[in-house]
């Protein structure tokens, strides 16, 4: 058996209207079912979703404050006022800054731009930067992707004579800044129909209002910011990103061309993942490692040579970022395991001096993946005496809401349900940890700490065709709010499997069902190869895609999780290194059986923490749980194995080595005629020097010396002969006895039978025989009594 790593959540779906969608829209059953499940059940709803028409965009002037902002910016342009664009250092902030740069250039405004340094200035507008802008003659500040929480900073700007227009998309706090105007779809009282624009989306809407027409030429930059910021790809975001991906694929902007080359993205190709996992992280790397300015210079480049230089710089910063993240993650994991073990902590709050605030968010996400607990990671700056942190959460724990209960010790924080950023006094970290632990105890139960996988639908392999998967792309672009569909394939056979990759940490496999096969790959799931057997009946969940190789296209499953619901037999009979397998088994409910005492002692010395029993100890002890059951060596008789299995409950996996130092199966088995001849030979000679003439006799008869030695020992046990100093002497008138009366003869027969049944049977034969006695979880525990002698 193999239990899934996550809870598979497949809600009962309302597929009403599916047949009508399939017919009217001329789509496959799979596409129609997904549309219906995601709430698009009428022809009108589904058509709206699939068409992604630009006609369905909202009027930017529906955003509260847009009219005032446009009038003030045009006034500044007409009066030749100096304007400062105040941005943010992440990919959304950089993209928002670039959109506003393009617009003000087109308006021929007198402007400059500024993005604060994450390390020396922190997030959002700050008073020294605003003072510098005022000193340099600026009279208008436009914030992009920031500013909604800058209450004291905007107040100070007003006192300096600066007008501040805030364009932002983050959650407003109870007190709003006293700005000239605020453009934020989430602002209380704003009637804008769609609330989930990213900072780049708000900037694009502002650009549209300022230019008087839709700025299609800025869709490529908008798409980078929107995908990178993980906002829901629904409504306007979905429409605009679908066009934006096309724009990115053919963009002639030198900065984007350079980015695509350094990311290895082919010309004319662009998918959501290219932005989310290649372009976005590189732009983010600039702000995470130093300052975001190089990313702005890259996107603002007017020559390819200049763009290539900036792209090379941020790619190097990204490599450095990856190295630091790996080092910090290792330290953070050690901190958790040594000081705040997940078994005792519902929320993980860890801090250390010197941790870079630029990458702690990534480290927090890594800890979520490993421990699945709400996480806050803080870096303590000894110079400022502040701790800056990033928080990441799990389903069921509203991080922003929970942190809001500790405003008294969090002078600066912001975010949303699943993530937040904060600044605090290091002396309050223990108190924050205590409070969050109490809050988690009240709001989370044990099941909440098991990660879940949302499954859209179950499909048979016969439905997984290239045509169906091509059609499925119409449901994209995929991302937050419109995730890639996750499918479950049940009752499939694991037809083949192997580890791949330089580190052998990925899994390549094939599933088979009703005669049709489906290729699959599991990235970072190479360990599943050690816990599954070929031809096992499995359930798999993952994303479906089309794999293109050498011009050939075929469906492929990107595996997320795998389950085997039946007990598995791991055939290790050709392997000698039993220690390697035993080392990987969990200590709990694992039983290693060695039928021979010396083997049991050797294994116990090597693995004192494991449950290692001799055969006699197993079948003479009360029944025990043995989820993982290992047979290290050969039993003398098959009944020993039966008796052992009868005492083991809830067996999930059986590992058979059946090691034997003295295999008899391929040795000559002397029959009754051989014994008869040798008996007559001894009777005629009366005595025989076994040590001196045994080899010669064996050659003449075509036997081995061990055969003659064995028969001599059998006769000795039957009291037919005496053996002294290697000389076998016949007794006078020995009593008649059957060969089976000899312990050695019977043991030889039993061992040969056991070897034939256990050691030299095929995999299928062995599994069928063991199945008669295996007591798997939820199985019938009376099998042995009903079957009798299964071997």
Automatic annotation (TrEMBL):
The UniProt keywords, alphabetically, are: Coiled coil, Exonuclease, Hydrolase, Nuclease
Q: Which domain of life is it from?
A: Bacteria
Task: Domain (DDH): give its ranges.
Answer: 82-226
What's a single GO BP term from this record?
Answer: DNA repair
* Residue span, Single-stranded-DNA-specific exonuclease RecJ C-terminal domain: 568-768
Q: Which InterPro entries match?
A: DDH_dom, DHH_sf, DHHA1_dom, RecJ, RecJ_C, RecJ_OB, SSDNA_exonuclease_RecJ
Residue runs in coiled coils: 300-334
Q: Where is the DHHA1 domain?
A: 346-440
A single MF term (Gene Ontology): nucleic acid binding
Q: Which residues form the RecJ OB domain?
A: 455-561
What family is it from?
Belongs to the RecJ family.
* The protein's name: Single-stranded-DNA-specific exonuclease RecJ
Q: From which organism does this entry originate?
A: Salibacterium qingdaonense
